[in-house]
Amino acid sequence: MIYSFKGHIPVIHESSFVHPLAAVTGNVIIGKNCYVGPGAAIRGDWGEIILEDGVNVQENCTVHMFPGKSIVLKEGAHVGHGAIIHGANLGRNCLIGMNSVIMDDAEIGEECIVGAMAFVKAETVFLKRQLIVGNPAKAIKEVSEEMIAWKTAGTKLYQQLPSDCHESLQEVEPLRKLPKHRPVQEDFYKTLQEMKTNNKE
């Protein structure tokens, strides 16, 4: 669902994937290898929204702003399910946790991790590599090398997902019973805690 608005037509690189149940409107520029999930709304009706290369905006997220603003989600920014980005800028390779809210003119620094359900007040600025949690959100410590390596690995999965969707995603009728040889999905990513446990062994 790609819509023009007052002469602005979204620009989406062919390597990116926008799910048909997402809505991208107006003055939006989406770079290479980006993923936009079903139910996401990216509304460039009142200002410009730029998703740099490798950004993912997952299911049921909203990206919008007040009139006259422009925002950038920098390379590798990772926006978890149900998050709201309203007039905020996201730094390179940051992670925005599920159902968090980032308000107007806030700045999330490079490689920051925002916890699930955090509320970042308008005009709040967080510098590079902060772990940000709570309501109102506060930085509680620096993001470790281990944490950012885990985040980066997860984002790489989303950077591969557009290609996988272009190759294999298709609308189908459901099966009415389980087939005898149902495909088994690969276990190729660990939680942060599982990764820590494996590294200790």
From TrEMBL:
Coiled coil: none annotated. InterPro entries: Hexapep, Transf_Hexapept/Carb_Anhydrase, Trimer_LpxA-like_sf. Pfam families: Hexapep. This is Gamma carbonic anhydrase family protein.
